[in-house]
């Protein structure tokens, strides 16, 4: 049951990623300017989706030591990506408070 819920949330996040990419591309064509922030948000959503997929993989595979170690490394990398992108968003908002729409 838990793996079904994790898979459902993972699929919803994939749909959210695709919708955000389409929205960003559409805005770039309409307004003729590029924006960095949507891509950072897409990266965070992708990393969260990666964490959920690793969690589902751990539930389905069991506890083999080699697979568990590689799963923990993957979780750590995804967590580091989320942290780095979050810090980047915070820095961009602090450095360019007036130009938020252009980020």
Describe the structure.
The protein is mainly α. The protein has one domain. Helix content is 83%, strand content 0%. The chain has three helices and no strands. The chain is elongated. The N and C termini lie far apart (41 Å). The mean pLDDT is 83.
Low-confidence stretches: none
- Give the helix proportion (percent range): over 70%
Any idea what the radius of gyration is?
A: 17 Å
**How far from one another are the termini?**
41 Å
Provide a short characterization of the protein structure:
It contains three helices and no strands.
List the helices and strands and how they pair.
Elements: H1 2-31, H2 37-61, H3 65-95
Helix pairs in contact: 1-2, 2-3
Question: Keywords for this structure?
Answer:
103 residues; single chain; 3 helices; elongated
């Amino acid at each position: 049951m838990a793996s079904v819920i994790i898979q459902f949330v993972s699929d919803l996040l994939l749909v959210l990623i695709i919708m955000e990419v389409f929205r960003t591309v559409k805005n770039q064509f309409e307004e003729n300017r590029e924006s960095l922030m949507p891509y950072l948000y897409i990266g965070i959503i992708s990393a969260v989706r990666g964490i959920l997929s690793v969690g589902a993989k751990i539930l389905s595979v069991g506890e083999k030591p080699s697979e568990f170690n590689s799963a923990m490394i993957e979780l750590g990398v995804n967590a580091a990506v989320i942290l780095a992108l979050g810090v980047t968003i915070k820095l961009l908002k602090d450095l360019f408070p007036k130009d938020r729409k252009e980020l």
